[in-house]
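Deliverable D5.2: sample structural annotation.
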Amino acid sequence: MQRSHLAKATMIVFLSLGSLGIVGGSFLIRKASSSTTDAKIITNTSRYSEIRNQLWASPAEIQHFPREISANTKDVRIAYSPGVAQASSFLQVREKQSPAQIQTLLTKYRKLAKRQYQGGDTNVHANLPNGIPTTFFYTGDTGGESFPPSYEILVLNAKDRGTPGFKWNHGDSYGVAIDSTAAEIVYWAEKW
């Protein structure tokens, strides 16, 4: 009789531990999968130096970005996403400059640009004849939208890393978007 109770108690303990393991394991799997599919956009400008110098994996793509954001730079916005799972990674810095500085930057980057677009976003640009993917206006007022027509998007470089028959499935591009009227420049780099 005592053996029977001991066997039942042991069975209950093993079933309880097994159930706990299943519940705990499914919780951990759910937590891991939900955290990898939700890209977090970092907008804190105090983290810019860390993002630029440590987190962005390809320094060549952001050489045209400002080295630092000074305290007197006006209306600075940044957007950064590390690109978890299948999401793209991007870095964007938007800032105001004097109209004279904007004209100097526009002249400089027009000479370096491999492609130029007026307004729009990556989907619009990629679907044009001989178009290439660019970026969305992550630092815009509502985030992730198209650039207004007042912005000139200058692509400094883009690399297609897709497979034959599936062009631009993966790749990267970087450049600037400049609005002369608003005296704003947006530095961008994107990988997908």
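Annotation notes: The chain is about 35% helix and 30% strand. Confidence is low (pLDDT under 50) at residues 23-39.
The annotation will be released with the project's public dataset once the embargo ends.
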